[in-house]
Design a protein that fits this description.
D-Maltodextrin-Binding Protein, domain 2, Dipeptide-binding Protein, domain 1, Dipeptide-binding Protein, domain 3, 4-stranded mixed β-sheet
């Protein structure tokens, strides 16, 4: 889950917690205090302090499924290819060039020869081959990543600096998948210990512009400039990620100069950072990335295995009103599994309306009635009662859950709320140990719904809501082999129709990234891919 953005599901909404869209309202007193305060910049001008809303479990790019980890790893690890920050076109990174066979089954990459891991060892084709075998290893816990390599039959070392991927059948995303394979150093991890629990999962060694330096559990993760970096050295010498779960505390630290970068909550964007004083000290950026939030209904629970019940639940949720009240209207209600500004999104599909009477009809037709007069719907002796699982740090999820609990109760649905610390929350999702859950999903710039929606992924992949539909599977499989973009659009728009009809999720919103950055940095540019610390300059330098 966001899930790894591997290459595929990297968090593009910068610095936000992957699974939810948090919200928080600070006290008026705090606003008053701010109006009387001065901005105090951090002492070391070459250190960037970044806010993290939660702490990642580890920093291994092959096994991590957390967007928070990916937002850090992108500066430590590198891939063969990268997407240009503005054009989004694939370009060389660790590889200098590539070749594709005419049958689109062989992808050869020529590696740059001057690259070293941050411990001084050379980066070679052996690292690529080793990483591929780790990804394919059934003992390695990385099911969401494995699905992208199911058709890769081999990765062969042609020479120390040439490697070739071979596919069993063509795949329209093959170049990106091969080019973005997460690579770890063979000489570090190939030591006979369990890859899943390797000590270097919390002490990464990469080829990127920064190298890992320190991890104070629950407090901070520190990166330092990589002295062996093969590319242009960043102006920022050190990046410190501060773990601050409470958004109001983080905002006060931002205003005091104790952090430099923070993703703002909508209320913070609208009401708490709009003063002239704040604008003089900070940039404020609003931009969209491939992302949506949703409520997932676990279809393995008998309560949710009927699509009409799931439709009824969606129609009991006033999504526009919630967007307006909790998120200050910053976003758009969405209907399906693609980025709303992507070519695959089917704009002919309109959101199911908020309609309590129609919802009641659907529930009654599915056999849910209050037969004993206790105010709770029942069927065959089973009460319509379930738990809603949320991350305890998410203020939006808390407010959303409260609204749902009240609205569902009006029609005879009993909902309890389970709150879990981030790591426990993620574990619950991975183990399918929930009834319903609210999450967010960061998408790639070029879609393939296999990881999230194919029925093969219900056991260990990212299809944790047990969506199973034969036609959907067929479309997903056919689209993977379709190189004609117009035909692929038609397939995916039909897939969107199926998802809308089945309602495995109640799709919520596409919301913008809301980011504040200290003006002690210059060259802070919002690209299509978002922000990039590497290009920032320290004021006066």
């Amino acid at each position: 889950m966001n899930y790894r953005q591997n290459k595929k599901y990297y968090l593009k909404v910068v610095l936000t917690q992957f699974y939810s869209v948090p919200y928080y309202m600070v006290m008026v007193a705090l606003l008053f205090c701010f109006s009387c305060s001065r901005f105090e910049w951090v002492r070391d001008p070459y250190t960037l302090y970044v806010h993290l809303s939660a702490e990642p479990g580890h920093l291994n790019p092959i096994t991590s499924t957390e967007a928070i980890a990916s937002s850090i790893n992108t500066y430590i690890y590198e891939t063969l290819l990268d997407r240009d920050y503005d054009t989004l076109e694939l370009k060389p990174l660790l590889a200098s060039k590539w070749e594709i066979s005419s049958d689109k089954l062989h992808y050869r990459f020529y590696l740059k020869k001057n690259i070293r891991w941050s411990d001084g060892k050379p980066f070679t084709a052996d690292d690529i081959v080793y990483s591929f075998h780790v990804i394919k290893d059934p003992k390695v816990a990385n099911a969401p990543l494995k699905v992208y390599y199911i058709d890769v039959v081999s990765v062969k070392k042609i020479s120390p600096y040439i490697v070739e991927f071979t596919y069993s059948r063509p795949y329209f995303l093959a170049l990106e998948i091969c080019g973005s394979i997460p690579v770890v150093p063979k000489h570090i991890f190939d030591d006979g210990t369990d890859f899943n629990t390797h000590k270097n999962n919390r002490h990464p060694i990469g080829t990127g512009p920064y190298t890992f330096s320190k991890w104070e559990t629950g407090k901070r993760i520190e990166l330092e400039i990589n002295p062996l970096y093969w590319g242009k050295k960043p102006d920022i010498k050190k990046v410190v990620y501060k773990v601050i779960p409470e958004p109001s505390v983080a905002l006060q630290m931002l205003k005091k100069g104790e952090i430099d970068v923070m993703s703002l909550r909508p209320i913070q964007w609208v009401r708490q950072t709009d003063s002239q004083h704040f604008k003089e000290a900070f940039y404020k950026f609003m931009y969209y990335q491939p992302y949506y939030s949703y409520i997932g209904w676990n279809a393995k629970n008998p309560l949710f295995n009927n699509k009409n019940v799931r439709k009824a639940l969606t129609m009991l949720i006033n999504r526009q009103a919630i967007l307006d009240s909790l998120l200050f209207g910053l976003g758009t209600v969405v209907t399906g599994p693609f980025y709303i500004y992507d070519k695959y999104y089917n704009h002919d599909i309109q959101p199911l309306p908020y309609d309590t009477e129609k919802a009641k009809e659907l529930l009654n037709s599915a056999g849910w009635v209050d037969s004993d007069g206790d105010g709770i719907l029942d069927k065959g002796g089973t009460k319509f009662s379930f738990t809603f699982t949320i991350a305890s740090a998410s203020k939006f999820a808390e407010r959303l859950a409260t609204i749902l609990k009240e609205d569902f109760a009006k029609v005879g649905i009993q909902m309890d709320i389970n709150r879990y610390e981030w790591a426990v929350f993620v574990n619950k999702i991975d183990k399918r140990d929930f009834d319903a859950v609210t999450l967010g999903w960061s998408l790639s710039w070029e879609g393939d719904p296999y990881q999230l929606w194919h029925s093969s992924e219900v056991k260990a992949g990212s299809n944790f809501c047990y969506f199973i539909n034969r036609e959907a599977d067929e479309i997903i499989e056919k689209a993977r082999k379709e190189f004609d973009v117009n035909k692929r659009i038609a397939l995916y728009r039909r897939f969107h129709e199926i998802i809308n009809d089945e309602q495995p999720y109640t799709f919520l919103y596409c919301t913008p990234a809301l980011v504040a950055v200290s003006k002690r940095f210059t060259n802070v540019i919002v690209h299509k891919r978002g922000l990039n610390y590497v290009e920032w300059k320290v004021t006066g330098n």
